[in-house]
Write a structure and sequence with these properties.
Layout (H helix, E strand, L loop, with lengths): L1 H5 L1 H19 L3 H23 L23 H31 L4 H8 L2
Helix pairs in contact: 2-3, 3-4
């Protein structure tokens, strides 16, 4: 139990991922599925940022005295998460555009009703 409290960012990210995954699986509404996917994305970002952060070290921006390699955190996880955020926003925009097109064609965003109308 002590490790869970010490690593509360990692614990929170796992809980968020579970909430997003359950939302993605259990709801038929496309908007709710997109929200669940975004919650899962956020959980992954939080997890990697928490793992990339080391207490006692600074961001790799040298202002004044250089502290050596041991004085700074690795900037790669942060850079990868920034790229991941851009990709997540793009995927969300694309999914919302597809949802709008489905609504225009079928008049609903409920997946079970769309499958009924298609005859599948």
């Amino acid at each position: 139990m002590e490790k869970l409290l010490t690593n509360y960012f990692e614990t929170a990210s796992m809980i968020l991922f579970g909430v997003g995954f359950v939302t993605l699986l259990l709801h038929n509404n496309l908007i709710k599925k997109i929200i669940g996917m975004n919650i899962m994305d956020t959980a992954v970002f939080l997890f990697f940022i928490a793992k990339g952060s080391i207490q006692g070290r600074e961001a790799p921006i040298v202002t004044g005295v250089h502290k050596g390699i041991a004085g700074y955190i690795n900037p790669i996880p942060t850079a990868l998460m920034l790229t991941g955020i851009v990709v997540a926003v793009s995927v969300t925009a694309f999914a919302l555009a597809l949802t709008v097109k489905l609504y225009e064609k079928y008049g609903t965003i409920e997946l079970d009703k769309i499958m009924e109308m298609r005859g599948d």
